[in-house]
């Protein structure tokens, strides 16, 4: 008997997960489709993918809209070309640039697929798709704030939209997508923000870079101007194939008896400059719409499942080094990658507009070259072949990096101090031959950071707390009559708190809290055919507020693959607005 249905795979190049019940129960269907526009307010009774996450807030100015894709079909791995020309009617400056995209998958049989859009070699969207059913053709909408990529949009670009897909007599779902860029002219109410002057992609042409092991790297060679003042890296590391369920992995030596993946349940994205450590990014435990049990994610998807949010690494202490006139190499890797991750990033470079040349350097750097996770396990196997016990893995890193630049407006010294903590605690009760198979996970991943910028007598501090808690309970039980029961419950959270102060006076605070809770039960016959759809329930909530008075709140509930309630604005005195 196979272990967790979700951990059985087929050899396909993109996020293809073999689900026994999906292959056994979905009817084969072929159809053609047009992209369906999804209402901005979720519809009670609908089975369309839905999330509580907010849309991108917009200025009140009328945008110029530049289409990138119109009902493009994705039925292979060739992708669809993108051609961009700056909007003549909105030459800039822009208060905001927003990507909007709508997707539809025809009813039938299909896996979840990875989706990414690139202009030039720069990533402008990364996510995954929803799985269809024989009688469900799901449609969904995503939006991405691309204002920080303004420099990219000042000149014509070509690129590629990729949703690698297999369509044949077995896998019949065709994916369709439309996408546009919205350019909002600046006004007195919505002035143009200061945006990066240079965007440097870390990619493999029009796609992400494959990282199969800890030593594999995605790299970019930099030849930056001599007046670099600030630098950030927006990075995404997506787990796939053998790494898709990395958060359920264990040490390789016991992976066989526990029927799960190896290399432990710890992964971390590492950033280096010229081979020396420069930053750390946690790996978010995204769960795709086919993960663990597809019925868990109908209609409420997991956190960020359809639209990954990049993690921003502050590399400003290295501005003086990167702008010294020499060539430099920035690299991204994933510690414990185990076949495989896909990674991509955009470097955002700000220059000193008052000087053609600045000088500076790195004053101190206590970041170690690699984490040193600690593994503890307490397992025992009895005479029946049942293995029980616990496996834990934890990592704790505290570091500080300081650098400076002498700019046209004085010496600026930047210190990035971070505490990065990770802990995975798993409990097992597994019998390879006869069941039961129980696996419980409680995982916490947190980053506490403080960036201190000294500019003369001004001292600005930006503090951030980011947390990704995940709790999973999985059970696959052999029933006395020869049938099987699978029960899965999941609790995902994404928590952010931000604060900014100037000379110890608070000038801004914000926080956001997202949570998705799902549970489903599946019944299988003796041949592992699912005998009925899942009978699960789920809920999602997203709430954010800040010291400027902005507030957003949405709560969703669902049962038996349909949305049952939508509650907006709870706890907010006003709706989102533009500042």
Furnish the topology, listing elements before pairings:
Elements: H1 20-25, E1 64-74, E2 80-84, E3 94-105, E4 114-119, E5 122-128, E6 139-145, E7 157-162, E8 175-185, E9 198-202, E10 209-211, E11 218-222, E12 228-239, H2 252-258, E13 268-273, E14 276-282, E15 311-314, H3 319-322, E16 328-335, E17 341-351, E18 359-365, E19 374-381, E20 386-407, E21 410-431, E22 437-455, E23 458-467, E24 470-478, E25 484-502, E26 505-524, E27 537-546, E28 551-559, E29 562-568
Keywords:
mainly beta, 12-stranded antiparallel β-sheet, 3% helix, globular, disordered C terminus
Biggest beta-sheet profile: 12 strands, antiparallel
Strand content: over 45%
- Number of helical segments? 3
Shape: globular
For the terminal residues, how far apart are their CA atoms?
A: 57 Å
Low-confidence stretches are: 1-31, 575-579
Radius of gyration: 24 Å
What is the share of helical residues? under 10%
Backbone structural class: mainly beta
Number of domains: 1
> Can you count the beta strands?
29
Query: What do the pLDDT scores average to?
Result: 92
What does this structure look like?
- It contains 3 helices and 29 strands.
- The chain is an all-beta fold.
- The strands form 5 sheets. Strands 18, 19, 20, 21, 22, 23, 24, 25, 26, 27, 28 and 29 form a 12-stranded antiparallel beta sheet that branches. Strands 9, 10, 12, 15 and 17 form a 5-stranded antiparallel beta sheet that branches.
- It is globular and about 80 Å long.
